[in-house]
Design brief:
Elements: E1 10-19, E2 25-30, E3 41-46, E4 56-63, E5 69-74, H1 79-85, E6 92-99, E7 111-115, H2 122-131, E8 136-142, E9 158-164, E10 171-172, H3 175-184, E11 193-197, H4 200-213, E12 216-220, E13 236-238, E14 249-251, E15 258-260
Parallel strand pairs: 7-8, 7-11, 8-9, 9-10, 11-12
Antiparallel strand pairs: 1-2, 1-6, 2-5, 3-4, 3-6, 4-5, 12-15, 13-14
The protein binds flavin-adenine dinucleotide and FE2/S2 (inorganic) cluster.
Length: about 270
């Protein structure tokens, strides 16, 4: 079994922490960012005072056109993400990537469905689609308006359809109900392709709905990772399908984090 080539770690400098509302931040840093596909990620830690042993995976959120700066969308949920959000301007962060495989780049006009920090992989995609004159359809679901962290970054470049559980913004209900509503209205048609990233229960529900209504579906998993480049087997998921040969397991950090829903055995158990 091959490991992904280990990338060189780079030390970058925090330029600012941008508040996205709902307790999440864009952690913007100066330093060269290689070309990165939507869905690829970096292993990240602070240069000083990193509180845990291992770096943590984060999707790239923004990347300057000339690659001179970038950002991660971070919600502080534990020691690592809190340390990143506590960085002061000028302090260092160590990044290693891009890692993993991105969403397929040969799908025209995918419908992107996001929940929580699962919004992160879609800003690059929205910028690319906007530049090509084909605004991306983004469905973004949260409990409340406040929970839709980062939604304003998409307002002028994508067709944003929001849903909230409490009805405080956009469609009143789950993002899956919003997707069904858009199907009924002809905004989304059977045979199209969904790209989805968010909490596991949401991705299960989106995958099940896509199967039922005849949409193709790719999911970007937020599996817990240790090394990030294929050596620890800490991120395996059960899979099926041609690209894995007869082997029923896949390392999310190498062959993922993006999988077609039909490749994931967990998604077949609904
Ligand atoms: C490919 C990839 C991209 C990611 N992109 C982003 C991103 O853009 N923004 C972002 O904020 N986060 C992202 N994450 C998630 C982030 O890496 C984790 O939440 C990370 O564990 C946070 O580290 P921590 O030290 O703060 O918290 P930890 O101590 O690692 O975890 C804090 C709490 O969250 C739980 N937890 C953490 N990860 C998982 C998981 N995968 N499944 C279930 N429970 C979990 C832990 O059990 C614990 O209760 C991504 C993960 C992956 C794999
Ligand atoms: S995180 Fe170590 S093999 Fe994937």
């Amino acid at each position: 079994m091959l490991a992904a080539p280990m990338k060189q770690s780079r030390v970058h400098t925090l330029r600012r922490r941008r508040d996205l509302g709902g307790g999440s931040f864009a952690i913007e840093f100066d330093g060269s960012v290689p070309v990165t596909g939507p869905g690829q990620f970096f292993m990240v830690r602070t240069a000083e005072r990193w509180p845990v042993q291992l770096p943590r995976p984060f999707s790239i959120y923004e990347r300057a056109a000339d690659g001179s700066w970038g950002s991660f969308l971070v919600k502080p949920v534990g020691p690592g993400s809190r340390a990143l959000c506590d960085l002061e301007a000028g302090e260092g962060l160590v990044v290693n990537g891009p890692l993993g495989l991105p969403f397929p780049d040969d799908i025209e006009d995918p419908i992107c469905v996001a929940g929580g920090v699962g919004l992160a992989p879609f800003l690059l995609l929205a910028q690319q689609a906007h530049a090509a004159g084909r605004p991306l359809r983004l469905l973004f679901g949260g409990r409340t308006r406040e929970a839709l962290s980062g939604i304003d970054d998409f307002a002028s470049i994508a067709r944003v359809f929001a849903s909230t559980d409490d009805g405080s913004h956009g469609f009143h209900g789950l993002v899956t109900a919003l997707l069904e509503d858009l199907l009924a209205k002809g905004e989304v048609e059977a045979g199209e392709t969904v790209f989805c990233c968010g909490p596991d229960p949401m991705m299960h529900a989106v995958a099940a709905l896509c199967e039922r209504v005849g949409l193709r579906c790719f999911l970007s998993l937020e599996t817990y990772m240790a090394c990030g480049y294929g050596v620890c087997n800490g991120c395996t998921v059960e899979v099926q399908g041609e690209r894995f040969g007869d082997w029923p397991y896949s390392r999310t950090c190498v062959e993922g984090p993006v999988y077609e829903a039909c490749e994931l055995r967990a998604m077949q158990r609904h």
